[in-house]
Design brief:
With 413 residues, this protein is α/β, with parallel strands linked by helices. It has helices at 3-22, 29-42, 46-83, 93-103, 107-120, 133-140, 157-168, 212-226, 228-240, 251-270, 298-308, 322-328, 340-356, 359-367, 372-379, 384-396, and strands at 146-150, 196-201, 275-280, 312-318, 333-337.
Length: 413
């Protein structure tokens, strides 16, 4: 439930209970108001309590989203000021800025999202990820071209995507001192210490993180930073052809000029070198923008174009929604749902870490003789989002009784 809806629902419930407390009372107006207020605060009215619980959850979710967005913005600004467009090795600074302005990628927005998710990753978790047979097959080129990881909201998909990006290509966060570790991922290419990697984090409501053309322009910019061959081919479209980068040219032509032709040039020079592409939160993309030729969503067309590029190995992380099923299920892909069997140990580690850093949480669960780890694993079905919301609520709660009802985040009030 969004915050505004929760606020309206809460105050509507308050008015209903308040009005009920006023009617039929044979006493002074002041006393009737006091009695009505007491009924709102202590009464058993389920509608009010449900609305109050929804409001608290909505506030927690809004706070977390605002914190993530602020961190992403600050990190993006910091990196932008300190990096001075790191593709300078591909040419003069003037040409680099011209390339950035021409492509108009969602670079800093995506780096901000990546940084925020990396910041929220708790060390010691996700050890199960790199032992997934589907992931290893995708990385080594032995499995289908597209690997689709699905899961419910709050299961940790974005943290997984950020972990893979930072593991496969540490330079994505400016850390060029780390080498690709053979202990965490299989050996990918004998030719390069790091694979070619493009990545994108979709975010509903963020204009530069929602559309197919944003993904294409950002992928092109990222790969141009990693290969002078790719960069020179993209520059041909900019300088010689005077190609206009705009959503109005259509996703097919945009992909051809900014990704497909440069990839072909890369393949002619290096052979069939794999290019890994990771798209997180694709279910949050805008599916309403349609291709002018077929009438299909441009996001669906982009997935088809990526699948038609032999060098591309595509990883998609999202909820399993109808729009994506209609496209990915007919492409060369394999899917896997993230479940409690995968991240149960991660939830346990997170709860232990959170409780160990909070005196109030330790005292609350200890006085009730309740194991917080078992409690959260059994009740919240290994969902990071709900676990975090409930733990933060309990830290700020004034009532010890909340610890006994915290299994359902909707009943913590």
């Amino acid at each position: 439930m969004d915050l505004l809806t929760a606020i309206v629902k809460y105050y509507s419930a308050c008015l209903v209970v308040f009005n009920h407390g006023l009617i039929g009372m044979k006493c002074s107006t002041e006393l009737r108001i006091v009695n009505a207020a007491k009924e709102i605060y202590k009464g058993p009215n389920s509608a009010y309590k449900g609305a109050a619980a929804d409001l608290q959850i909505a506030i927690s979710e809004f706070d977390q989203a605002l914190q993530d967005q602020t961190r992403a913005l600050v990190v993006g600004i910091f990196l932008k000021r300190s990096a001075k467009i790191e593709i300078s090795k591909f040419g003069s600074e003037k040409n680099d800025h011209a390339m950035f302005g021409w492509l108009s990628p969602s670079h800093w927005e995506v780096v901000g999202q990546l940084s925020g998710h990396v910041y929220r990753h708790l060390g010691g978790t996700l050890t199960w990820l790199h032992s997934l047979p589907e992931l290893n097959a995708w990385l080594t080129g032995k499995g289908p071209q597209i690997f689709w990881m699905t899961g419910l909201p709050g299961i940790g998909k974005s943290i997984i995507a950020a972990n893979l990006v930072s593991t496969l290509h540490p330079a994505a966060l400016g850390d060029r001192s780390k080498e690709l570790s053979s202990t965490t991922v299989p050996k990918i290419s004998p030719r390069r210490s790091q694979p070619f990697l493009a990545y994108f984090f979709c975010k509903s409501g963020e204009d530069k993180l929602m559309h197919a053309h944003n993904i294409v322009q950002t992928f092109s910019y990222q790969l141009a930073r990693q290969s002078d061959i790719f960069n020179r081919e993209v520059n041909k479209s900019r300088v010689i052809e005077q190609f206009t980068v705009s959503p109005s040219v259509g996703i097919r032509l945009l992909y051809n000029r900014l990704v497909q032709r440069p990839l072909s040039a890369l393949g002619r020079s290096l052979g069939q070198e794999n290019v890994f592409c990771i798209i997180d939160g694709l279910d949050e993309a805008d599916f309403s923008v349609r291709d002018g030729r077929s009438g299909s969503p441009e996001i669906a067309i982009l997935l088809q174009l990526l699948a038609a590029s032999p060098q591309v190995r595509l990883l998609v992380l999202s909820r399993r929604i109808k729009e994506l099923c209609e496209t990915l299920d007919v492409l060369p892909s394999v899917s896997r749902e993230i479940s409690g069997a995968d991240n149960g140990d991660d939830i346990e580690l997170y709860v232990e870490w959170k409780v160990s850093h909070s005196i109030k949480l330790r005292q609350g669960f200890s006085e009730l003789n309740v194991s917080p780890v078992d409690h959260f694993l059994n009740e919240l079905r290994c969902n990071f989002l709900w676990t975090d919301i409930v733990l933060r609520f309990l830290e700020g709660s004034a009532s010890k009784n909340d610890f006994g009802t915290s299994g359902d985040p909707r009943s913590v009030l």
